[in-house]
# Entry
Amino acid sequence: MSAFYSSMLTFAGINLIAVLGVYLLIGLTGLFSFGQVGFMAIGAYISSIACLQWGLPFWAGILISVAFALIVGLFIGAITLKLRTDYFALATYGFAEVVKTALIYFSDITGGSMGIFGIPTLVNLPVVAVIAVICIMICANFKKLKFGRNSLAVRNDPLAAEIMGINTFAHKMKVFLLSAALGALSGALLAFSTSYIEPEMFNWSKSVELIIIVFFGGLNSLSGAVFATLFLSLLPELLRFGSEWRMVLFTFIIIVTIIFKPTGLFGYYEIPLNPVTIAKKIRSYVKKIRVDRSAKRGERDAR
Amino acid sequence: MIQQFVNGLSLGAVYALIAVGFALVFSILKFSNFSHGSVIMLSAYFGLWLSSTFKVGLLPTLLASMVVGGLIAVIIERLGFRPIRKKNGPLIYFFVSSIAISMFFQYLMTALMGGQFFMYSDFMKTSSINVGDLTIPVLNIYMLAISTVTLIVLLYLLYKTKIGIAIRAASSDLLTPNLMGINTDFIVSVTFFVSGALAGIAGVFLGLSLSVYPQLGSLVLKAFIATVIGGLGSLGGAVVGAFLLGLAETFSTAYLGGDVTPMITFTIMILFLLLKPEGIAGLLGLGKNAGTTQKA
# Structure
């Protein structure tokens, strides 16, 4: 595999980890956050500062950055999670902006708007692939377990969920922290694969991109989120558009999807990965074909 | 000090134009319309093109941009929001659609025009008036005066005309006016036209005072903040909130530096969200002015 494709796939994988966080938050729990990019920035900066300035190994830097994101997430979540959708979106956007401002302001640690150079490129495709697969498995299990069902309940009707004994605030907080951790992880991996970070990389448009990917794949489908990330990250590269027209096409596809198929590409469908379910599906499909055939034969005989 | 106050007022006046358009759409369709930003950006480009090609003055440019802004907003509503409305889609789809539309236009203009900054030819930029020891740019006076006049005209439109009454009726409930023989599709179009026209004026002013670039549309977030401070969905609150925001930004840029300004504004906003979520409108009882519900 050429270096070009492997670096492309690496970025797709890093994007995927961040998208999973957004999927848990927006798709499963209905918390519309613009703050994901703030956690990505925290992950990228804390891990590379830990590595370059404190001389820690990079995995320790990543762990520290995730822990830091969790603490920040606890604080931000405590303030914002009781607000209604629009306010929550705006408040989390404000959080991301404040993070960006802080990165520019504390320039003696963060390098200001110049960013941080010379981060060792320790993360390559296999590392990202393994981490991404682990994250996908975690999220897939969350969807099936009580945790995911509680999330859906909170999304569809918070009041009813509260009556059924779910502490909605605590549950939202859990999801928020999980997505913050995923965001920080993805940011840290980004820092160790590009070797260069600057505040401009963590813009509002990055958050929007993540949200749009989740909507494109389908709010209710994890497979959709994974597919949409890979599709939308790889397609423009493969088609070799001029870089400026790529995002035009990208956003146009999204608008068309939302208008004509608002449940997203996958709707509620999940690609089955469990061998037992796959076998069952195949068996029922074969049975259906047989039934159809015998029905046809019956018709013919009757004639 | 007074100098900063005047600058803050004129910035606030432009924010008020954006915020009122934003709040108008919010009061009827109950979603935060981010595509408002792309109307601002597109009409800034249009005003630039018009004034540089035909060498017309400020007022004709403003009027033409108003019309064009309104038409753009109507087209966006037709193509981007009406299909969702007809399917009774949840509010979140409107929200995402508006974000996607604003990103689409931002990238489209980046692709077409390049990311560079365009300046309006200075047909009035250089001049300024001296009052005592104050130096007030003429542009600021125009911004303040024209914005105020436009807002007063809007107020007249909303309270004294049949269409205005229909808009206010639709803002408390979109279904009932339909039963009363009001064409709600038409009312929604008119609302978008009015909000787009306001955005058109604001776009030209922002283009004059800053410059014209594809990310100009992100200034719609200031309107969002202003409407939160003012109380989401209330027009009077939005105006007050916009002026407060303009003043706060100008003063914090002047005394604390431009880097810290976003932090200050967002802190103010978060404080409002936590302590007074119904905004200034809730404090002053302005909410009923525009006939909007406080449910929002």
In short: Residues 2-218 of chain B form one domain. The longest strand of chain B covers residues 128-131. Residues 58-86 of chain B form the longest helix (29 residues). Confidence is low (pLDDT under 50) at residues 287-296 of chain B.
